[in-house]
Amino acid sequence: MRPVLLTSAYLAPVQYFTKLYAAPYVVEERCDHYVKQTYRNRCVIAGPDGSLPLTIPIEHGDVLKPATRDIRISDHGNWRHLHWTALVSAYDNSPYFAYYADDFAPFYERPYKYLVDFNEGLRALICDLLDLHPDVRPTSAYADAAALGVDDLRETIRPKTGYAADVHFSPAPYYQVFRERHGFLPNLSMADLLFNMGPESRLILKKSVVEE
Q1: Could you tell me which of 149, 179, 206, 152 has the C-alpha nearest to residue 14?
Q2: How are beta strands 26-29 and 136-138 bridged, if at all?
Q3: Which of 36, 52, 62, 95 is the most buried (most CB within 10 A)?
Q4: Do residues 164 and 157 touch, judged by C-beta distance below 8 A?
Q5: What is the mean pLDDT of residues 199-210?
Q6: Please, are residues 136 and 26 in contact by the beta-carbon 8 Å criterion?
Q7: 102: Cβ–Cβ under 8 A, 6 or more apart, which residues?
């Protein structure tokens, strides 16, 4: 796998984390124009009724096309409490939630000013829990993928596009709490994989990478 160019992402999907697992290094775009309805401020977990999107409200400000790095998190709607309650409801009976809950809870107890910092903190936590050490290089200007010699996945890993276009990703199935009710739901948030599989999540990431 070549180095890849990704966006910032909130509790990113398994597909995203396979890049952190397998790519030589990852360039994280922070200087692009912020785009709505993407993984930048949205994740998808498996709730009792099926796939459940969780969206962080943001402050738009007066800038017409703000950069992702400048997007501030809004306190509107008590979202931290709602997201944490949703995670507890979805994963309280999963094999590993009890082991990791105390690590995740502080992210929903104290405010973060900027979305990219919140996303980075959660990504770093998950990588630390799985002993992953990706080389992540945030941008200081809008990235030219061709000039950098990286695969541009900024528009590839998105909620509405699915993952079929990614030739390096094929989601390996794993245990999910509500699998008997809904069947296996692929490419959910990495939180789903972590809470269900714990340290074995690394093996699922490896199995989900398609080599050339």
Answers
A1: 206
A2: parallel
A3: 52
A4: no
A5: 97
A6: yes
A7: none
